[in-house]
Structure formats: structure tokens, C-alpha cells
Amino acid sequence: MAELNKSILGKVRGSLGDLSFRQRNGKNVIAMRPSSFTPGTDPASIARRDRFKMSIKLAKVLNDIPIIKQYWTSMSPAEMTGFNFLFKTNYQFVSSDDINSNPMIMPVMGFNVNNPAGTFNAADFEISLDAIGTNNRIDTLLETKYSLLNIMFLKDPINSSFESNHLSSIISENIPLQLTDPVTFSVNIPDNQLYFYNNYQTKKVFSVLLTSDDSDQIVNFSNTFSV
Fold it and tell me: Alpha helices, DSSP H only, in 11-125?
């Protein structure tokens, strides 16, 4: 039996695999399940475990991005860690093997983008957006650049030895901000992700548009959108 003095999941109760979690004197306690315990093998039990794993995978990829972690930590309720808040918020958007709708990359709503469209090429992908417009409270004297923060979700591997899905993050280069014309971002796949990118048949990208100032400090962001 072990105690977690600092838990990324906040207060934990229940079980996962061979471990059980409970609260004792305000601390998280982890113990091995009895050897006689057998996890459920019915489809519903397997789907619940796989959905939990998918939620953890998504939360971890987001939490590994410093600016995302900073926002979720600063806005989490007092009784929750930033990771737990991120995990709990986005649990509703995943299933056992998929991300079904746009997750909350940022913990609050941002400005809207219109008509995103994507093209997946051999070593990059392109995302085109309609003009951002001048009614999104963007201060062009302060906000001089923008970029795309992307969560790439790959599914249906060509090679059966690959895991059923793969998640990673990619941030595009900054380009000069302009609000009145359509814009296209070309996002190069890093070398360490290109092998995965080309070995999955289904590709989704979930993105937020980030605006920044001359010193590359993030100022503003959009809602999550997908292609």
C-alpha cells in the first residue's frame, strides 16, 4: 500500500487495472487489488477502461504543452489540479477509441474562426481559414503575429503492430497577423512524428489559433476547431 501526497488527479476513488484508490485522512491511498479480483471482460467494462485510457492520453498530450498547462493550472478549481481539471473537462469528448468532437484545448472559450479546411500531404498538412475579421476584440497594436497549436490524432494503422491510435502536438511557425483576408497555415510534420503520420489511414487535427505580441508572448486564442 502507498500514499500519494501530491496526486495529478486530485482526489481519487475507485479502481483501475490491478490498483484500487481510496481516500484516507485527506490523502490518496493506492493498494493492489486482491489476487482473486478479475477485471470485467464484458464489452461495457472494456469500453469504460479504454475510454479512461483515451482521456488520460489526450490530457497528457495537452498538459505537456507549457502554455496549455499554464492556462489549465491557473484556472482550475481550488480542489483540483490543472491536470485533473483538463482530464475531467475533456472526458466527455472521447470514446474508447476516438475523439468524437472538438476537445477543450483551452479551459475557456475564445474567439471563433470560420470555415476551417484541411489538406493532408506527404510531409505536412495545410489549414485554411476565412478572414478572422475585425470584430473579435483583437488589438492589432499589441497582437502582431499568429500561429496554430495543433493536436494531431491518428487512427487505423496500416501496420497491425502499431497501437490503435496515436496523439501528438505540433505548433506552426508564427506569421504576421492580418484580419481581413483568408489565411493558410502550412504545418510541417517533425521528423520524429513523420513515421507515425504516414502509417495511419485516418488523420484528424484539432487546433486553436494563437495570437502573440512582438516578444512571442501569447495574448489571445480561438475556440478549438478541427479538420
Answer: 43-63, 66-75, 82-90
Q: pLDDT in tens for each of the 227 residues of the chain? A: 545 555 555 555 566 555 666 666 666 665 666 665 566 778 888 999 999 999 999 999 999 999 999 999 999 999 999 999 999 999 999 999 999 999 999 999 999 999 999 999 999 999 999 999 999 999 999 999 999 999 999 999 998 899 999 999 999 999 999 999 999 999 999 999 999 999 999 999 999 999 999 999 999 999 999 99
| Helix ranges restricted to H, 132-182 | none
Type of residue numbered 167: L
Q: Which residue has the cell 479546411?
A: 117
SS3 track for 9-46: CCCCCEEECCEEEEEECCEEEEEECCCCCCCCCCHHHH
